[in-house]
Specification:
Rossmann fold; alpha/beta; two-stranded antiparallel ribbon; 5 strands
Length: 90
């Protein structure tokens, strides 16, 4: 058994210096957080972005700057869903 800890949730911007959140997500998922839910923070909603996030199986996305109560609600929703979701087998 590994001592590596994986996050319960990843909150990630779609726009990062020298990269984007989608590339960083791919790197994170390769390190063992494969089934960790992701919420993307995005400056705008576009049909292309919505499609890209759907293809990446984003668990949710929210417009920047996030409204704190809404962000907390979405995090809670995903965390509750994670409790009832069937566990992935390795």
């Amino acid at each position: 058994m590994s001592n590596k800890k994986t996050p319960d949730l990843i909150l990630l911007s779609t726009q990062l210096p020298n990269s984007d959140g989608f590339m960083l997500r791919d790197q994170i998922k390769k390190t063992g957080a494969k089934h960790t839910p992701v919420i993307y923070l995005t400056p705008k909603y576009t049909p292309e972005l919505t499609k890209q996030m759907g293809m990446l199986t984003a668990d949710d996305f929210i417009k920047k700057p996030p409204n704190t109560p809404e962000l907390i609600l979405r995090i809670q929703k995903i965390m509750i869903w994670q409790c009832y979701k069937p566990k992935k087998r390795k």
